[in-house]
Design a protein that fits this description.
Elements: E1 2-8, E2 12-18, E3 24-31, E4 35-37, E5 41-44, H1 46-67, E6 71-77, E7 96-97, H2 105-114, E8 150-156, E9 159-166, E10 169-174, E11 184-189, E12 195-199, E13 208-213, E14 219-225, E15 233-239, E16 244-252, E17 255-262, E18 267-272
Parallel strand pairs: 1-6
Antiparallel strand pairs: 1-2, 2-3, 4-5, 5-7, 8-9, 9-10, 10-11, 12-13, 13-14, 14-15, 16-17, 17-18
Amino acid sequence: MGILVFDVGTSSMRGVLMNEQADILCQFQGKYHPDFHLSIYVTQNPEIWRSVLYDIAKNIQIWCEEHGHKVEMISLMAQRTSMISVDRDGNALCDAVMWQDKRTSVDILRMAENLQCKVVVPIHWDVWTNFQADCDEIKVLKEGLLKNHGYCKAEVDGVLRSYVAANEGVFECTLPESAEGTWEIKQVLDEASSDMAFADFDNDGELEMLTISPFHGEKISIFKKTDAEKLTFTADLLDSDVGPANVLHYTNNGEDYILSANREIDEIALYKVEK
């Protein structure tokens, strides 16, 4: 049996043909990129997805004919909350609103009204597709962050804080002490990053920060806190030219490991942190 899997990602689409044992028989990839407007709107022409999918399917068909294989099952994996407005025949009415888009449910409903939509279907639990939305449902903490992709929480200096990675760097967000208070937003890194994670990699009692840079970039770095008063770091380069998309830190038998999905070289890599 030939199982064809389409993975529709943010910056590329892959078509992978596997057998019943999940052995990869062949794979093809087509690259593209969404359009960023004013650091707020993020859209993608859905016809690009259609064109890339057709190209990949054609290449898979040619490979199957040359190697005597047949596709008997197709699976499709798509992006999380990206949304396409379509008519009753499935034709796109406008560009897709991508999952990085910062518009609220109010904007989405206004768009639906302008398109004279009769039905708006919430596609995820995200509040921006919630019919009960109002203009105050989302509080703006920081504007002007392009590609704000990575998010994590970490207890730093005894305080639980949120961290956001973007094209402008990594930002620390500290919750106000009361409902009437204001959030404290502080930039802790000015290097473009897509993801970050915190862990005590060297067991010195202090958290270090791991980043992927630039956006889904080729560099994994670990930043160590060097100032007791400020969250400043020094960096060690773990690897380069591998395009890590996601990383996971875990501990096994007292040893620290980093598992990385290196998409640009099609590998899953395991890094051991040497003391």
